[in-house]
Structures are given as C-alpha cells and as structure tokens.
Design goal:
The chain is of the alpha/beta class. 34% of the residues lie in helices and 21% in strands. The chain is built from 8 helices and 8 strands. It is globular.
C-alpha cells in the first residue's frame, strides 16, 4: 500500500498543488493501487490535519488516514473528508477510552503503535504500558486493524493473536524490499514506489 507523507503546509503554500495530486493519483492508479495510506505529520505534530488532501484523493482511492486525533470525537472530520479508515496513534491518543468514543461514531477505526526505540505515548493506559496490553485494550474496544513499524511487527502480530489485521510501515531504509513479513500488507512511501518504476536514465 502506498504511503503519502504530509508535512510542511504553510498559510501561503499547500502541500501539493491540484496538478501534483492529479499526477500522483494517475501514477499510483497506473500501478493498480486502490488504497492509499496518508500520514499527516502536520496533524500529528501541530494538530492541523490537511483534510483537503484527503478530499482530493478519496474518489480515486480507499483512504487510510493517520493525522493524530487526540480525542475520539476528532475522527468525525476525517471521515467526512473521505477517510475510510482513521488510525489513532499511541503518540497522540489521550487515553484508550477515546478509541471507544471513536468506535461509537464509525467502525473504521484502527490503532497505530508509534515506536522509536520504545513506545511513543503519553496517554492514560498507554504510557509505560506493554504493547500487548495496549493492543488488548484497543481490540476490546472494537479495533480490528493495527499498524506498526517493521521493526516491531513480529511482536505486534504475536500480541494480536489473529484478533486483528496487522499492517507494517516500512520506515527504515531497505524495509520496503522485505518479503518475509507475515502481515496483511506493507505500507511504503510513494516516493520509493514511484522511484522503482522510473525508467533508468542511463
């Protein structure tokens, strides 16, 4: 599954022009991709999701969207914008109970295990809690889809125990070429995917 990374919108400049989005969409559809994972760093870090990008692409792709919702009620704007699946990441999530609130609004809620040499998360029931316990709490609240980095994917698959679909994000150099992962799908940066298809200039 292609990953579109959003970061750096300013008051004067959009992340992608309409022409750029159209070109990206055409390239990805030309490779028969039907799903797109949008990782919105502006939403995660500054609580300013780029919903217009989701709106621009939702007619061409089934959108999985991660934009750092802190509260369960925050997911409704993302769903209205066109996201089919909204991921609530451990880094931003205020508490596991917010997952239950979100699930009451839409069934399309997933959990993202944020990891950087350790679990990233400050929320109630998340900080200093083992990954397996966080996952169990999320699945008890109805989550059936979990995303984590390739680095910890085996641990996440074991903890899910078949109770959820597990997807891996290739976030380290070389991870995008892994074929030995026992997960539902590999989420790879669009730039890497499109670079693979570019003709050799030599």
């Amino acid at each position: 599954m292609p990953l579109l990374l959003l970061k750096g919108r300013t008051a004067m400049r959009r992340e992608y022009s309409k022409k750029d989005l159209s070109s990206l969409s055409k390239s990805l559809r030309g490779r028969n991709f039907e799903k797109l994972y949008i990782l919105d760093i502006d939403g995660i870090e500054r609580n300013r999701p780029q919903l217009e990008i989701v709106q621009s692409l939702c007619n061409d792709f089934s959108i999985s969207y991660e934009a750092g919702p802190r509260k369960g009620a925050n997911v409704i704007d993302m769903v209205v914008a066109g996201a089919d699946m909204v991921y609530m990441g451990t880094y931003c999530l205020a508490s596991l109970d917010e997952i239950g609130t979100a699930m009451a609004l839409t069934e399309g809620i997933g959990l993202k295990i944020d990891w950087n040499d350790g679990l990233l998360g400050r929320g109630k029931g998340i900080e200093n809690v083992p990954i397996a316990d966080i996952m169990r709490g999320a699945m008890d609240r109805g989550v059936k889809d979990i995303v984590a980095s390739v680095e910890i994917i085996d641990k996440v698959i074991d903890a899910a125990g078949g109770g959820a679909v597990v997807r891996a994000i290739a976030d380290r150099p070389g991870d995008e070429k892994r074929t030995d992962l026992n997960c539902a799908s590999l989420i790879v940066n669009c730039d890497l995917l499109l670079k693979e298809e570019a003709p050799d200039a030599s």
